[in-house]
Amino acid sequence: MVIPLRHASALDVALMVNRLFADSAQAAAGAADTSQRLSVVADARSNSLVARSDNPSRITRLRTLATMLDSPTSAAGNLHVVYLKNAEAVKVAETLRAIHLGETVSAAAPRPMTLPAAASPAGTPPPSLPALSGSQPAALSPGMIQADAATNSILINAPDAIYNNLRAALDKLDVRRAQVYVEALIAEITADKAAEFGIQWQDLSGAEKTGTHAFGGTNFGTPAQNILSISANPAGAGRGLNIGVIKGVVTIPGISGQILNLGLLVRALETDNNANILSTPTLLTLDNEEARIIIGQNVPFITGQYAVTGAATTPTPFQTVERRDVGLTLRVKPQISEGGTVRLQIYQEVSSVQDNLNPAGVVTNKRAVESTVLVDDGQIVVIGGLIQDSVRDGVEKVPVLGDIPLLGALFTYNTRSRTKTNLMVFLRPTVLRDARRAQSLTDSRYDYILGEQYKAAPPPKPPLPDMDPPTLPPRQGAPAAAPAPVPSQPPQ
């Protein structure tokens, strides 16, 4: 049965009627008497009640109650308070004002909007909503719409017809918004290979003798590789294989103390470094709301300084410092479509301090990507990356002598290195439309962290005392006595 209403709001009347008939419905359910059940649903478009029951008497009681509630008010406008369940009252109030007056929602702070009331003669239909074009004057739009942020409610003071239209729009705006769980997968694989081989020699036998004597030799590389530096400081020899021929010590003018008489040095070194780094910053945010996570340090950068010069009386020396975040930064703003596709505005940055002893200031490394992408729910998409492969080959040699076949190896020093970097940034959004799916995702992450904390507990070591590690409390519904299961990797 359909019961149309002229003055009251079908949404409010349906809510009140369902509360009134709730007790009798529960009693009927306990007695298995379906004839006492009554279902009432509001149709906001036609402002009517749709009722269903196997008992005609209950339909008659509903019609009588609806007629009593559907009565016009004596004043031009009456005050209604609508408590919101999901939406934010301040923003919804701005939207309702725009609908009511046909204006554009202002970005300024919301404020009460009171319009002069236009009373309708008795027996005539109340005024309807103005057109959205905004061409009608404000005098045709009586009423007031105000938000109460403390209770998250909307106060509407308007005639019945206007209130019914606003109430129908308000009911559609106050819905549960979906959430998006975003995982940014940053995978970096680096391989560094280097090799060096060289032969150096020198003749310092005549350094301590008088008269005319010849000396010479070859010297290549850095101080840790150079034969002269190693002769003065053997402990400073570089890593790798160092084989030399020593014949006593000599004293050279200009060098304090004695040095080794190192006549021959053979160096060989090969390095192979591999790194596999996976970072997974995650965020959970509402649909159409921006979220940000920063994990790192707040590093000071000197932007200016003033120092005292000479004997002049000047102010106290000072420096101006600007602090910046260095580490991992992720900013995401998702927008969910009806088909399940997620539109993501992303800014991803990974930075680190490379050198803080540079006279010009702190040197940082930075890798950032900013993009807008479309991703299906639960799918992984690549949003950026870097594949770099560089090879360097260096040769230090004595002219002419280093080009002699076979014997030229005695006068050369060879270095070779290769660096290969694979850096990729992936993204995986997961849409959480209800509380059950959000709770399931939270429980899996909670159990993983709880298991990792149990694994990190220090083992018993007498005579050291046992100390309980800091752990999260067992989640509700999980066994408290037994440790949580420990997966080998974070749940996907």
Structural features:
492 residues
SSE arrangement, N to C? EHHEEHEHEEEHEEHEEEEEEEEEH
**Number of separate strands:** 18
State the helical fraction: 10-25%
Uncertain regions spanning at least 5 consecutive residues? 104-141
Q: How much beta, percentage-wise?
A: 35-45%
Sheet with most strands: 7 strands, antiparallel
Radius of gyration: 40 Å
- Structural class assignment: alpha+beta
What's a concise summary of this model?
This protein has 492 residues and is an alpha+beta fold.
Task: Please describe what this structure looks like.
The chain is of the alpha+beta class. 18% of the residues lie in helices and 40% in strands. Strands 8, 9, 10, 11, 12, 17 and 18 form a seven-stranded antiparallel beta sheet that branches. The radius of gyration is 40 Å and the shape is elongated. The model is unreliable at 104-141 (pLDDT under 50).
Layout of strands and helices, then pairs:
Blueprint: E1 2-4, H1 10-20, H2 22-31, E2 39-43, E3 48-52, H3 56-69, E4 78-83, H4 89-101, E5 113-115, E6 143-148, E7 153-158, H5 160-173, E8 179-203, E9 216-217, H6 227-232, E10 241-250, E11 259-279, E12 282-286, E13 291-306, E14 318-336, E15 341-355, E16 363-376, E17 381-397, E18 412-432, H7 435-455
Antiparallel strand pairs: 1-3, 2-3, 4-7, 5-6, 6-7, 8-9, 8-11, 8-12, 8-18, 10-11, 13-14, 14-15, 15-16, 17-18
Helix pairs in contact: 4-5
